[in-house]
Amino acid sequence: MLDGLLARCSFPPPGSPVVCAVSGGADSTALVALACAAGCVVEVVHVDHRLRASSATDAEVVHATSVRLGVPCRVEVVAVEPGPNLEARARRARYAALPAGALLGHTADDQAETVLLQLVRGAGVHGLAGMAPDGRRPLLELRRHETRALCERLGLRVVDDETNAEPAFRRNRVRHEVLPLLADVAGRDVVPLLARTARHARAAADALDEHAGHVDPTDAAAVLAAPPAVAAVALRAWLRRCSDDGQPPTTAVIERVRTVAAGQARSTEVGGGWRVRRHRGRLLLDPPPVGDGVGGPE
Predict the structure, then answer these.
(1) How do strand 282-286 and strand 274-279 relate by DSSP bridges?
(2) How confident is the model at residue 83 (pLDDT cuts 50, 70, 90)?
(3) CA of 92: how far to CAs of 25, 89, 246, 278, in Å?
(4) With 50 as the cut, is the pLDDT of residue 297 above it?
(5) Rounded to 5, what percent of the chain is helix, strand, coil?
(6) What is the mean pLDDT of residues 63-92?
(7) How far, in Å, CA of 115 to CA of 129, rounded?
(8) Helix ranges restricted to H, 19-143
(9) Which domains are assigned to the chain?
(10) Cα 99 versus chain centre, distance
(11) Is residue 188 helix, strand or coil?
């Protein structure tokens, strides 16, 4: 079983040092076991958000797994206050605590959920591309039931996070309600289909990125001359710095910037107090006024 799963993973060559982010769930626990089997030099990092009373137990389970597999383990504690957008804020805190390039235990099931979540957000081709196969997610071709089966086969204890069943989180509803309904309607497992959609969208997004790389988003004439989809990608890459949460600007913002490029408007706000204006054929990005309390890139 181990060899069959490894053949579908994308770990670096044997001897490569890797850091595995491990929550204690089946996916991340399998990530560590497979990384060890791939011959990588593994270190485990567990991020404790202190959001559940059982979080200390999670850390103990991860430490026991690390001991069992003979790899070092360290725990990072982060503070995430209760309130709106808890899931997103916890994710940002977790990623900030992890070393650059840390491996993540996302599977094909996670990819399918991401595609559907992006779809209901109204995302374009880049959103539908889901999570990129960027080397940080070596399990993207595996299924969630396979990671759990591997942990059971190896006798590794895993944590079942009770918040993964709470309907307050949109991803949970997609996982437990939307995907089963879609499978029932389609009469088949839709996860491989959604993962394939992500691969097709990724290829299209990569092609758009390549063309957009030749468009100067500060040149009004170049923006107007480029195909709208290509110009939008170039503008989004340029304006992403204006977002407090790292999200790209909306379609409405891009359309407003195009009206500025065309000389139909003098300027427009693009988020966080930042504005785009046109001057002598160039698009200029003006920061928020000093003292207005809105932050921006340094």
Answers:
(1) antiparallel
(2) low
(3) 19, 5, 10, 34
(4) no
(5) 50, 10, 40
(6) 83
(7) 7
(8) 26-37, 55-69, 86-97, 108-121, 125-128
(9) 2-103+138-165 (3.40.50.620), 107-135+167-202 (no CATH), 213-286 (no CATH)
(10) 16
(11) coil
**Residue 92 identity:** R
Rounded Cα–Cα distance for residues 279 and 261 (Å): 9
Q: What does the pLDDT look like over 26-57, one tens digit per residue?
A: 999 999 999 999 999 999 999 887 666 667 78
C-alpha Rg value of the chain to the nearest Å: 22
How many CA atoms does the CB half-sphere of 67 hold within 13 Å?
7
**Length of the chain in terms of residues written:** 298
Contacts of 86 (CB under 8 A, 6+ apart): 51, 80
Tokens read off for 106? 């996302």
Asked if residue 173 has pLDDT above 80, the reply is: yes
Which DSSP helix (H) or strand (E) runs through 20?
A: strand 17-21
The whole-number pLDDT of residue 86 equals 67
The 282-286 sheet, strands edge to edge? 267-271, 274-279, 282-286
**Identity (one letter) of the amino acid at 159?**
V
Q: Which two tokens stand for residue 132?
A: 């990129």
What is the spatial distance between Cα 32 and Cα 42, in angstroms, rounded to a whole number? Answer: 7
CA atoms within 13 A on the CB side of 290: 1
**Joined tokens for residue 282:** 């160039």
Which stretch of DSSP H or E encloses residue 255?
Answer: helix 251-261
Collapsing DSSP states into helix, strand and coil, what is residue 193? helix
